[in-house]
Amino acid sequence: MSIKLAILGLLSWKPSTGYDLKKMIEDSSFMHWSGNNNQIYKSLVQLLEDGWVTHEVQHQESSPSKKIYTITDKGLAELRNWVDSSPELPELKKGFLTQLAWADQLNSKELDDLLSRYEAEISLHLALQEEKKRRSLYVPNRTEREACLWEMIAENIISSYRNELLWVQQLRQKLV
Amino acid sequence: MSIKLAILGLLSWKPSTGYDLKKMIEDSSFMHWSGNNNQIYKSLVQLLEDGWVTHEVQHQESSPSKKIYTITDKGLAELRNWVDSSPELPELKKGFLTQLAWADQLNSKELDDLLSRYEAEISLHLALQEEKKRRSLYVPNRTEREACLWEMIAENIISSYRNELLWVQQLRQKLV
DNA sequence: GGTGTCATGTAAACAGTTACATGATTTT
DNA sequence: AAAATCATGTAACTGTTTACATGACACC
Question: I need a surface site. Which of A54, A152, B100, B109 has the fewest CB within 10 A?
């Protein structure tokens, strides 16, 4: 799963500059790339070379000129092709589990403290995700079904953190 | 969260060779590194330089000589220090969500097919994780509490996939 | 006068994967 | 005869992050 396909997706929604894409990717909960310049501007050059996008330079007074990228038919076909390809399993990287794996050297209080700090972080992040969902900037809403899909995508992330929260609370209970 | 700390943890359980570590990391559900040679053998060299481990070369007839790595007091202190450090948020990379985000261009049947393929993959992987938990190779069991922690770590992974499965089933229902 | 937004890009470093390389023994 | 296990390591590549670099304008 390459960031190029996320960019292609966003451009299939609306023509954008690298700067726009950066903001959309950074704001997104499910596009898991950091959205740093290096990745985005390099990808755009590659997408141009592939012929999946075109760009138009727009000069502006009083702010830097920008390149507005638009998806081509070839790019749309590629996107469609990819959307229908075999789904990947999620990659769950939970560093905390590795930390917890060797936590038996802590005493009861230290261990519970550690778990409570994790609980607090998850709890905070969950609230943040819920807030983000309420705000929902940058959400395409072209059909009812698309709105439903995006709603459920946001719900997926939230339910993951809710699940994590329940788990840590259960564990703390068990260890009392 | 570096693989070095996972290795240090494993060595705090028992002295091992790079080869052993590779197997343990590959088999683990929660140590999310692939366990490729490059990473492991390079990390071991660094851990030696740091003074966190020592090694003893054991020559063998009829198989290559091996280096048995043992954690030092300095390494143990470092591990303990790290285990008690502030927990990181999980990193959830779900490529499928990005795929689904642009799936409104598929017709109902294609979309349901896609979701059913994802459901099947998750379902299979969930069974695999449950089987892995039953098998539980390479699980330290030095205290009751440690056993409980490892049990809950395995449960964490399983519940994540169970949650994902429920989510996709719900979505399919919604789209009927 | 400092910070934030708009807008592009590059350089260096680090992390991670795949594939290559060797070589003996054991199992199928 | 082929494949798997034991055991070490390297080379090349891809992906990702952090930091640097520029420059005008707007807001506090």
Answer: B109
